[in-house]
Write a structure and sequence with these properties.
Radius of gyration: 20 Å
Distance between the termini: 37 Å
Number of strands: 0
CATH architecture: Up-down Bundle
Order of helices and strands: HHHHHHHHHHHHHHHH
Structural class: mainly alpha
CATH topology: Growth Hormone, Chain: A
Largest sheet: none
Number of helices: 16
Amino acid sequence: MAKNRNLYLMYAIAGLQGMVFYSPIATLYRQTAGISLFEITLIESISLVLMILLELPWGIAAEKIGYKRTISFCCFLFFFSKLIFWKAHTFGGFLLERVLLAVVTAGLSGTDTAFLYRSCKKGDSHRVFGIYSNLTMGGMVAAAGLYSLFMSGRYRMSAFATAAVYGVAALLSLALQEPDQMAEGEGKEKGSPLFSLSLLPSKKLLLLILAAALFNETHQTITVFLNQPQYLRAGMAEKTMALAYIAVTLAGLSAGFSARLTSRLGAGKTGSLLLFSGGIACLILTFTCSPLLSVAAILLLRISHSLFGPLQLELQNQAVSPQNRAAALSFNAAFMDGAAVFTNLVFGRTAEISIAAAMGFGLILCLSGLLLFERYKRKPL
């Protein structure tokens, strides 16, 4: 019963934390406050550097103080960061919000998936990861729809509404229960002098991590920050952008089909297909100024990444040692964050040259990720 309760609560938290009402105009929100595209990506890079520094300490802390306490603390800090975003009017304000977000993301990274992995039945984790991702997307869809109906053009109200639902999510996190840490022999090596060495990913796993990092950052930058400039380039109105955002967010619900697709094609073929599809989406975005093609390409990028996310999480969880699972996953995330620091700055600079150039850079990252994943498949354990 405790495991089911944990899953339901985590699903609810994911749904609420997906309800970022200002998402359809996140870039415009910042630009209205005087923040440039390069400053936005600079803030993101600073946030990522901080995440890298905090990933491993947070993973170790989660093993010491418990996953439930870590998740609850991060949920409350998440709520506080949204309050700051609501009131931010300067570069410093938006930077502070992103600094807090870095602390939260580093704390939840690895911990939430390890918590879910321990809270579900054996062999059910891939499906659970898909549902968890889907509920985040479901929250985003609901928020985008409500923004379009009731908050269009009211940027600050959308930020306040976001902070409110994050407060509810924080309260729900208090009801979580610590899962059985010894179910798979996990936690038995705490205090071992080889603890830090056991966290290092194998050369094979590192290839997967880097491939996922390049795909993640391409998807994150284009679907969160560059989609709106691309829509403006295509001549779309703000209200139409909100509708496009809803469609793209709905496409994220495809994460629930990741396990089924993988069972049919196999993990190797599925991963390669999805990385290739992401590259095709970026190729289209590099050359098109058509509103319809722009939305279609971003839909393809979202679907490809949504299906890839649960797959790479499953592959990572299978590859890490059961001992200190959260710390090992956090260590992996630090490698991914490191790649993102570089890609964010390049995305920002190329976007100031032209949006097409930034999309071309996304194509290069997806193809590089595909090559890394192909090497991952062929490399022996």
